[in-house]
Amino acid sequence: MIVPNQRGYGKSSCPTEITAYGIEHLTGDLVALLNHYGYEKATFIGHDWGANIVWNLALLHPEKVSKIINLALPYMQRGEKPWIEFMEEIFGPDNYFVHFNRQVGVSNAILDENKSQFLGNLFRKNVPLTMPEPGMMMINLAKAEKSLGDPIMSESELAVYVSAFETSGFTGGINWYRNLDLNWHLLADVQPIIQHPTLMIYGEQDIIPKSENLTDFVPNAEVVSLDCGHCIQQEKPEETNKAILKWLEQHNE
Prior knowledge:
Blueprint: H1 23-37, E1 42-47, H2 49-60, E2 65-71, H3 83-91, H4 96-102, H5 106-113, H6 115-122, E3 124-125, H7 137-143, E4 150-151, H8 155-168, H9 171-177, H10 180-186, E5 198-203, H11 214-217, E6 221-226, H12 232-235, H13 237-250
Helix pairs in contact: 1-2, 5-7, 6-7, 6-8
């Protein structure tokens, strides 16, 4: 089992160039790990942005993928407009995807100044469903002195995350978002159907909606839903492991 810190996080490399975080590099890192350890292909498990990388790995390097297990973020087909332009039209300039791209450097500084408070406010569960506050969500979380809901992690577990971002800062992670439109252009001529056996795990209380047409693009996908929010593997670790192991046993080659 290989569990890497991807570029921009923890003690992994943190290039300064924004384009160093494009999808060809993020998927290429995973291919390089397989080659380094002598594996021809592997089953990949991803959550949220990790899931996005796994979907794209299956598109760009299908021969390296045996099976896919993704959590929270379903396959997102490439639309007619670049991602940030599309999101800005739908969600407006305060959407954090848009803000990261249109106001480069603003959020980096605020998150870096409030690492512990931001991460403590971010990793929560049982958060009441309310109308979002005005402004950019991530900046609001970094500045909020009162946390909503309940903590997902213990203080010692959260301290591991805080320590990691003390090392890396947030710029590398935010640069992933700043390549979305470049990724959109890169994938223009890529065949969009993923044929690999796939398990998609949703959190029933997640604000990310389920895909209504998942099997149109991932025809061999099976779906499991757990009663939790976005951080599925942290909120429901035993149930998540059980679902994964059961599916892997059913699809043992």
